[in-house]
Amino acid sequence: MYRKISIFLSIMIILVSLSACTNKTENIETVQDLNSAETNNSIEEQKEKGIIIDKEEVINKLCSDEFEGRFVGSLGNDLASEYLSDLFRDIGLVSMFGENYKHEYTQEVYKTAGLNGGLIAEDDYGEIKTINNIVGKIEGQSNNAIVLSAHFDHIGIQDGKIIRGAIDNASGVSVLLELAETLKNKYKIEKPEFDIIFCAFNSEETGLKGSRKFIEDIDGKYNNLININIDSVGYKDGGNVTFLDRNTDTSLYNPMKEIIESNGLEVELDTELIGSADSVEFDRAGISAICIIDENVKDVIHTENDVPELIDYDRLDKIVKSVYDFVSSYVFN
């Protein structure tokens, strides 16, 4: 009898131990599952918040040695277009020209990697290459569109030095990308009233060829178009904001001026700043356009001093907010 009781107790002890081990294993697995779920939720929350674009990171990348001053036809320019195409994809924009964000065209480019200190030899041209704009959009509910643009090319290497082009125009590209992200999040559920097209133009520094080709290729696709171009903004010593190459159509100037000033920046329209930008091609095509630029940029652009340390990110934030407010409130007549 004693022996039977002893055997019985031994069996019970073994069963209890096994049960405890099983419960412990189940508890460990449950905790691991919870931790995994929390990690996944955290990633999903980050995705939902759309935290993709960091303007400082974008500017530093575009100004890096790797991109060699982003001169049209150079390896650095090609790498910059790949980088921007990847960011358009991550933001979730819709492509306009084929399966990806590259809008291809051909162009005769310089044989050298830069402008030779600003002097172009007669025999410096000669190679035909495929060049890319990077283009994507948020689809709207009508056959109208606002084109937001900024050029990403620059002037490459001069006298052995990389001309990094932080103000001209890595800053504008960073603004364009943040606008793409914030507006994509705004219209995640309900489409905007019109298409919002985002163009990172190439070849601005070599005759506005990228914007010209884009305008040719969308001809007839929209009933109404306007262009907001962002070029050389966020300079610490930039002075007032102004609009470059103003034409006779002033319909965009006063509304944009009011919005920029409401966001804490001063706007001066009567300046002596003259120059050429991608907005000019829209003007020539009869499309209302405006180019937002800082008043004093001539002091620094196209020089080796145009580096990321010159960027005022608070100023850039105000430009982003201003264009965001303008697009969000715009109504086509």
Account of the 3D structure:
This protein has 333 residues and is α/β, with parallel strands linked by helices. The protein has two domains: 49 residues; 275 residues, Aminopeptidase, CATH 3.40.630.10. Strands 1, 2, 3, 4, 7, 8, 9 and 10 form an eight-stranded mixed beta sheet that branches. Strands 5-6 form a two-stranded antiparallel sheet. β5 and β6 form a beta hairpin. α2 runs antiparallel to α4, α4 crosses α8 and α6 crosses α8. It is globular, with a radius of gyration of 27 Å. The N terminus is likely disordered.
What ranges have pLDDT less than 50 throughout 5 or more consecutive residues?
A: 1-47, 115-120
Number of strands: 10
Question: What are the secondary-structure elements, in order, as H or E?
Answer: HHHEEEEEEHEHEEHHEH
Give the biggest sheet: 8 strands, mixed
User: Which class of the largest domain in CATH terms?
Assistant: Alpha Beta
Proportion in β-strands = 15-25%
Helix content: 40-55%
What's the pLDDT, averaged over the residues? 84
CATH architecture term of the largest domain: 3-Layer(aba) Sandwich
